[in-house]
Amino acid sequence: MTLQIPLPLERWRLILGEAAESACGALDAQAAEADAALEWLYGRDPDRGERDERGAGLDPSSLSTPDWINSIHTLFPKEVIERLETDAVERFGIDEVVTNLEVLSRITPSESLLRAVLHTKHLMNPEVLGAARKLVAEVVRRIMEQLDTEVRRAFSGTRDRRQRSQLKIASNFDFKRTVADNLQRWDPARQRLYVERPVFMSRSRRHAQPWDIILLIDQSGSMVSSVIHSAVMAACLWNLPGMRTRLVAFDTAVVDLTSSVADPVELLMKVQLGGGTDIAHAVAYAQGLISNPTRSVVVLVSDFYEGGSEFDLVRRVKALVAGGTRVLGLAALDSGADPAFDRAMAGRLVDAGAQVGAMTPGELASWLAEKLKA
To answer: What residues form the membrane-spanning segments (predicted)?
Structure first.
């Protein structure tokens, strides 16, 4: 049974919180349950105290996440429930919400929800995990559509004005040559140039020999967005000719996930978020994979907070660079590239010869394409 429409004084009491009880009167049992459910969620807002009086003197709620899910489904109408569940995941990061099958079946797929699923998939029973996998697939499909276009555009090759192409596509259009070749068709009276033969440039191939791309992905909990986009990026690179892509996830241990790179959904469902961080150990693993240093790139996606040996990490990066391997450190790899990282360690890696920055996946694709020119 859902909550009945409160009386005006009860409504003000729900808005203002416990501090207004002396003026508005006590809530009845059902309204009090609704108040507790709202407080459980919106009481987490750190800025709320600056905007209103609600919450003054309130004790912490004893509701658990499952209790809260059950209570809102008995207290509020459907549209309110959906808003509360969305706010729980996207505003306050209450990942446990997504372990409920009914929530997963209703909530709109988003990257926020995907992050929550990756945090809580170990808590899901097989039925919930099946629903979660479908949600992961939908979000990955959306990211893949955008990122695959960016990657293919970056790796499509440089335009070569010296050679003409019969492939008549807009990205190859040579404006200057077209104007020069058709100047005799300029009509002074109408101030128009009539083009009979448009000119298109050919594209030079970027890769005469295969390149080995090794993505080292920090899978600590704070790096979840980077894990998501790294998995999709690896799948996009996997499909490109002349590229051998490996994807390695690490915390204090190293897990080679290359066998799942072609299926980013399966890959993400294998990732175990959390734990410590031993970046040097991951770099050592990458060193063991390299057979042709001058045709290899190691991409380290991490916040650079090293839990292992900082000396060993710097030493190994320096050795990679000295041997001809290109090392790129990424402080962020999501659509926003909002970086939070150990700048001191990043600086030491730069001094060792690495290039460190915060990039979106599209920017990474452009950077790789630029660096891997034959």
So the answer is: none
Contact (CB, 8 A) for 72 and 81: yes
* DSSP string for residues in 197-244: S--BEEEE-S-SS-EEEEEEEE-SGGGHHHHHHHHHHHHHHHTSTTEE
Confidence (pLDDT) at 317: 97
Helices (H) and strands (E) in the chain, counts: 16, 10
Output the domain CATH number for residue 288. Answer: 3.40.50.410
Whether residue 58 sits in one domain with residue 119: yes
Q: Are strands 243-250 and 254-256 parallel, antiparallel or unpaired?
A: antiparallel
Q: How far apart are CA 233 and CA 261, in angstroms?
A: 9
* CB burial readout 282-306, b (16+ within 10 A) else e: bbbbbbeebeebebbbbbbbbbbeb
Burial class (CB in 10 A: 0-12, 13-18, 19+), 10: buried
| Residue of 285, 288, 368, 361 lying closest to 326 (CA atoms) | 368
Question: Residue with structure tokens 């996998």?
Answer: 133
DSSP state of 200: B
How many whole angstroms separate alpha carbon 290 and alpha carbon 297?
A: 9
| Global confidence as pTM | 0.67
Whether residues 169 and 313 fall in one domain:
no
- Is the same domain home to 63 and 188? no
Residues 244 and 168 in one domain: no
The SS3 of residue 173 is strand
pLDDT band at 189 (very low <50, low <70, confident <90, very high): confident
